[in-house]
UniProtKB/TrEMBL annotation:
Protein name: Efflux RND transporter periplasmic adaptor subunit
One matching Pfam family: HH_MFP_RND
Residues in Multidrug resistance protein MdtA-like barrel-sandwich hybrid domain copies: 68-203
Organism field: Variovorax gossypii
Lineage of the species this protein comes from: Bacteria, Pseudomonadati, Pseudomonadota, Betaproteobacteria, Burkholderiales
The family this protein is said to belong to: Belongs to the membrane fusion protein (MFP) (TC 8.A.1) family.
Regions of compositional bias (Pro residues) in chain numbering: 387-404
Multidrug resistance protein MdtA-like beta-barrel domain span: 219-308
Domain Multidrug resistance protein MdtA-like C-terminal permuted SH3: 313-373
Amino acid sequence: MRIHSLHSSTRWRLAAGIALAATLLAACGPQTAPPAPPPPEVGVIAVQPRDVPLVKDMVGRLSPFLSANVTARVSGVLQRRTYVEGANVRQGQVLFEIDPGFYRAQLENALAVLAQDQATLANARMTAARNRQLLPVGSVSQQTVDNSDAAERSAAARVRADEAAVATARLNLGYTKVTSPIDGIAGQQQLTVGAVVGNGTSDGGANGTLLATVQQIDPLYVNFTVSADELMALRQAQAQGRVSLAQQNRVQVKVRLPNGAPYEHPGTLDFTAAVVNAATGAVNLRARLPNPQQALLPGLYVTLSAELGEQKQVFLVPQRAILRDTAGAYALVVGPDAKVLRKNVQAGTARGSDWIVTGGLAAGDRVIVSGLQGAAPGREVKASDWQPPPPAPVPGNVPAPAPAAPASAPAR
């Protein structure tokens, strides 16, 4: 029994030694390298040159299409206001009335003087005619005929002067009713009833008292500026064929309200200054904007987009694909060997969700849009076509779920 146990222990030790030797030999042998990671996947788009509208975003201020001062053209006491402040008025509508008593008396006096001189003229004509008939028979002298003819002409001249005085008096009496010079919205009155208006003379003159202002706000003007440097750059680009500028009356202007909502009626550029403003270094421009509902008011600041023309052979690249560092803007492109290349680009203008790239890319370049975190210049990547994400649903436009099918009636 003791001899058998000894042999068993020896066999176990021998087996353990052989296993340990095999393990050591395996550890000292050649090791297999782990497999290389697959190249990162990126989404790319193949860019092609195209012509896109040249749109500039600016800030403008609205002003009335027409603005007219309502002034007193004769002196007197303001008797009443005949319009509602802030309401629409028509051209020729009476807005104020001035005490007409003095001017009515002037008209009556001028009419009386005219009637008197007309009677004198009639008598002078009869006298002159009678003397001309008596001259051939020698009853009157030539001197008498000449004097009667001169008296007739003097009386006729006085009548014409009286008629002019009557017209002036009637005109001044009409000025006591102050009317609107244009169609528009009448503003707040500047003087109260009972105030003395005019310029101190009976003919009113050019210094009449301001009573109110009428503004026409359909259409409106929107005034804005473009820097002289930018305008010169656009014209140089047009000379080089890179930009095609539209004619003035074909430049469309779209306005956004202060709350960011788009205004439904586009406008048209109708004025471009021929000089540079010395104070601002900019060129003044103006667009005409329809305002049929009178939703816009003069003095309001708005954001506007002016479509000045067309940019020739540029690239539209998603904004997420254009990167920037201290050297400027650049894009990562997948080359023919599936390796990433860096290309510096010129991208200074956005159009929707894209950058307009005017230089640095070539037709057919595969620009990386997604997977940029795994791409680096010189690194091999696996490229596939990039698909833009679907637009987010608009709140309130989510379709309602279909109604459930009615349950079948139980069998009887």
